Amino acid sequence: MWRLSGNSKKGYGFTYNGLNRLTIADYGTYSGSWVNNSAYDLNPVVYDKNGNISRLIRKNSTGGTRESLTYTYSGSDTGNQLSSISGYYNESYKSGTFIYDGNGNATSDGLRGLTVTYFDELNLPKQYYQNSTNKVDYKYDDRDNNVTITGDDRNRNIMRLKETR
Question: Source organism's superkingdom (predicted)?
């Protein structure tokens, strides 16, 4: 529960299945009593027999569908790797496939247009491109903690996205 402005309280109620996996997140507001109008709800979240999310529906601010996604995974012999996502994402239909290297690193995210072009010797991502134009570089400290993320847009304008010390 939280409060943003005035006395309006907001919060989520959560429902879990028998294996303690989230299945429903109900958003509500409080003004004398709790009211749920389906805005921002997550309902339902469905899992496959391996515990991977296979389907989820997320609502927008008016209770309409923001995302309705179906997740497909490769067989258990490859570690339950996500192979594709399809459905409504950010209120428009999209689909994408995922590609992995021999070490199991995701090298391509077709849904968001991401391609990882370089991993270090510890299989940490060092560089990726979004839609083949926007480059992002990752730098790590001697304990492999992500320290900085920098990027440039298609005009090669450098921007610092994150720095942690």
Answer: Bacteria
What's the CATH fold of domain 1-100?
Answer: Lipocalin (2.40.128)
pLDDT one-digit tens code per residue, 7-65: 678 899 999 999 999 999 999 988 888 888 889 999 999 999 889 999 999 999 999 99
> Tens digit of pLDDT for each residue in 57-93?
999 999 999 999 999 998 655 558 899 999 987 778 8
Residue 128, Cβ neighbours under 10 Å: how many?
Answer: 21
Angle at 112 between CA 162 and CA 56, to 5 degrees: 105
Q: Which residues contact 148 (CB under 8 A, 6 or more apart)?
A: 138, 139, 160, 162, 163, 164
Helix (H, G, I), strand (E, B) or coil at 77: helix
Regarding pTM above 0.85, the answer is: no
Contact 10, 28 (CB under 8 A): yes
| Length, in residues, of the chain | 165
